[in-house]
Amino acid sequence: MALLPEIDEEKTIANVRDFFEHDFKRLQNMAHISYVSIKSPIISGMPTGSSVSNSNDDKLTNYSYARKTLDDIVRACEAMSFPYRDVLESRYFKGLSWMQVTERLGYSTSRGHQLINDSFLQFAEAFSDIYDYRVFK
After folding, report:
1. pLDDT digit string, tens, across residues 34-48
2. Which domains does the chain have, with CATH numbers?
3. Is the dihedral of CA 124, 126, 131, 134 positive or negative?
4. Phi, psi of 95 (to 5 degrees)
């Protein structure tokens, strides 16, 4: 019996890849959009037919959530070892293609592919206290 449960590497890699390819971009957009210019609410004595939620509060909440999550992602990446951290930073923070990442780090295509997958696995472990992308067998 193993001390820790076995990770399904293929599914974990797919989860982290999906996060970085879709959610990470969205978080970056949410954190840098200038729509958080809070205006003073207009208060009148007449009820209106608008929605129940406060859109300014929602915007600020979304912005704060995105900023906090991005900070957590940076901390998780900082906890990763070389070259795995460099792989993720080059691809998702600096916007390089996978080919550029492997060329920049001086690895062959097959070794680069292995490093990419290992980087996703390391990130899943480092980020698991915030959100767990790991899938167990």
Report:
1. 433 434 444 455 555
2. 18-32+54-137 (1.10.10.10)
3. positive
4. 75, 20
Distance CA 22, CA 72 (A): 17
Query: Are the beta carbons of 73 and 67 closer than 8 angstroms?
Result: no
- d(CA 121, CA 8) in angstroms, rounded, equals 10
Using CA atoms, how far apart are residues 29 and 69, in angstroms rounded to an integer? 12
Q: Are 135 and 7 in contact (CB under 8 A)?
A: yes
Residue position matching structure tokens 């062959």: 108
Q: How far apart are CA 135 and CA 10, in angstroms?
A: 9
Answer positive or negative: Cα dihedral of 114, 119, 124, 125. positive
Of the CA atoms within 13 Å of residue 8, those in its CB half-sphere come to 10
Model pTM score: 0.78
Q: How far apart are CA 19 and CA 25, in angstroms?
A: 9
Banded pLDDT at 124 (limits 50, 70, 90): very high
